[in-house]
Every structure is written in structure tokens, then in C-alpha cells.
Write a structure and sequence with these properties.
By secondary structure, this protein is an alpha+beta fold. The protein has a domain of about 80 residues: HIT family, subunit A. It is built from three helices and five strands, in the order H-E-E-E-H-E-H-E. The structure holds adenosine monophosphate and zinc ion.
Length: about 110
């Protein structure tokens, strides 16, 4: 499968991996848009949010609690941070394997551009 995140998960191409377990991997974004910009990527290939099924309910909850725990361990939980998942063209999705952007270290605008 021609999926860049599956290739990272399968160690076919390199990435800076901060954490991984049986469910997900956390990598450094290659083009960071904040002082801290990591991607929480499920190991299971799911192309977009539109492809989620009830099977993934627990996985999605796990991604959020992992993000919150990471915020605490990076000492940004109180200052705050942003979690983003883009979907398809209008959402700005460029890699079609779902992932959550974890961004911190500066204030973010609302609404986003
Ligand atoms: P999105 O545009 O929401 O699909 O997010 C894709 C993200 O993946 C972007 O922020 C890219 O900078 C990032 N990205 C693309 N290729 C790589 C890679 N090889 N390693 C790490 N991050 C990547
Ligand atoms: Zn994939």
C-alpha cells in the first residue's frame, strides 16, 4: 500500500518516533507549525475520518487520552494545546491515513485559517 504513515509504522522509511505501542505511534511532524508538533497515528490504516466504524470507538478515545497524557508529560497541559484532525480536501488533509496533530508551545488563532 502506498501510504507514507504505513511505511513509517513498518519501518520502511525513517521518522522521529516519540512513542509507540500496539495501537498507535507518535511521530515528529516533518514540517512543524508550532514549537511542539507531533502526529498521533493509529497503526491500523484508516484513510479518513469518514471511514471510522464503531470498531474504532475505543481507539479514538485512546488517541485523546494519549494526547492529554503527553501534554502533561511535556508540561503544556495547563498552558494549553491544540488537537486537529483534517478530513479530505476542504479540511486540508494531505496524508490519507488518519492522524491527530498535537500542537503546543504557542497560542493558536481561532477560527483557524
Ligand atoms: P494533514 O495535512 O492533516 O493530512 O497532515 C499531514 C501531516 O503529515 C503534515 O503536517 C505533514 O507535515 C506531515 N508529514 C508528511 N510526511 C511526513 C513524514 N514523512 N514524516 C513526518 N511527518 C510527515
Ligand atoms: Zn496507512
Amino acid at each position: 500500500m502506498d501510504c507514507i504513515f504505513c511505511k513509517i509504522i513498518n519501518q520502511e522509511i525513517p521518522a522521529k518516533i516519540h512513542y509507540q505501542d500496539e495501537h498507535l505511534v507518535i511521530i515528529e511532524d516533518i514540517a512543524p507549525k508550532a514549537p511542539i508538533h507531533r502526529l498521533i497515528v493509529p497503526k491500523r490504516h484508516i484513510a479518513t475520518l469518514n471511514d471510522l466504524t464503531p470498531t474504532e470507538h475505543e481507539l479514538i478515545g485512546y488517541m485523546y487520552t494519549t494526547a492529554a497524557n503527553m501534554a502533561k508529560s511535556l508540561n503544556v497541559a495547563d498552558d494549553g494545546y491544540r488537537l486537529i484532525t483534517n478530513c479530505n480536501q476542504n479540511g486540508g488533509q494531505t496524508v490519507f491515513h488518519i492522524h491527530m496533530h498535537f500542537m503546543a508551545g504557542r497560542a493558536f488563532h481561532w477560527p483557524p485559517g
